[in-house]
What we know:
By secondary structure, the protein is α/β, with parallel strands linked by helices. The protein has one domain (2-188): 3-Layer(aba) Sandwich (Rossmann fold). It contains 7 helices and 9 strands; from the N terminus they run βαβββαββαβαβααβα. β5 (65-71) and β6 form a beta hairpin. α1 packs across α7 (166-188). 29% of the residues are buried. Bound molecules: guanosine-5'-diphosphate (GDP) and adenosine-5'-diphosphate. Adenosine-5'-diphosphate is lined by residues 7, 9-15, 128, 131-132, 163, 165-166.
Amino acid sequence: MLFVISGPSGVGKGTVIQEILRRRQDLSVSISYTSRAPRAGETDGLSYFFVSRAVFEQMVAAGEFLEYAEVHRNYYGTSRAQVRKMLDSGRNVLFEVDVQGGINLRRQFKELRSIFILPPGEAELVKRIKNRGTETPETLRLRLETMRGEMLKAGEYDYQVVNNKLDACVEKINKIIDREIKLEKESRR
Ligand SMILES: Nc1nc2c(ncn2[C@@H]2O[C@H](COP(=O)(O)OP(=O)(O)O)[C@@H](O)[C@H]2O)c(=O)[nH]1
Ligand SMILES: Nc1ncnc2c1ncn2[C@@H]1O[C@H](COP(=O)(O)OP(=O)(O)O)[C@@H](O)[C@H]1O
């Protein structure tokens, strides 16, 4: 099965996905390429593969991405080779991409199930991004600008889950994944 998770910056996508990975061994997360600079504590090949804009553009020209988009003035893309490897291993795959990536992946994989993570409110979202301590006033402004457009796309996802209490959100998404895997197995009988 293929799953995609999207949501505005700071809603907790990364945190929720780490928790889901701790709870299940049947899921691989696709590690994207990005031209964004690594944040403190981010390791190349774990959070992302960090490359320059020039290298990213070469990879686009070589057709190495299943999908890519420019988000908050940086490139982000899903590697074709990596996804093929994960699918060949027979594991379920989870993508964390922006709403442009979500639309693009849905077009390519009709069996993809999509989950949008919503914040409990805009003030809380801003608080979380600020508390993370990773953004300058300028990158914060860009993230909030993008947020409005992203929230408008929430209704196009199969599921919408509010990340108020972390554990409850993780539990809901975990159940959605279980349910979709079960439904898919039943449909193949
Ligand atoms: N289209 C697309 N979006 C991606 C990909 N990887 C990450 N993103 C999205 O890019 C946006 C920015 O990610 P990031 O810089 O880590 O910032 P954060 O959302 O503030 O943690 C988020 O919406 C991610 O979901 C990708 O491979 N493709
Ligand atoms: N349910 C939650 N309640 C409070 N803070 C949260 C919650 N989920 C995540 N956070 C915090 O919010 C910040 C943004 O989370 P992060 O996972 O980086 O978001 P995203 O990947 O969506 O940008 C982090 O500091 C994280 O610890």
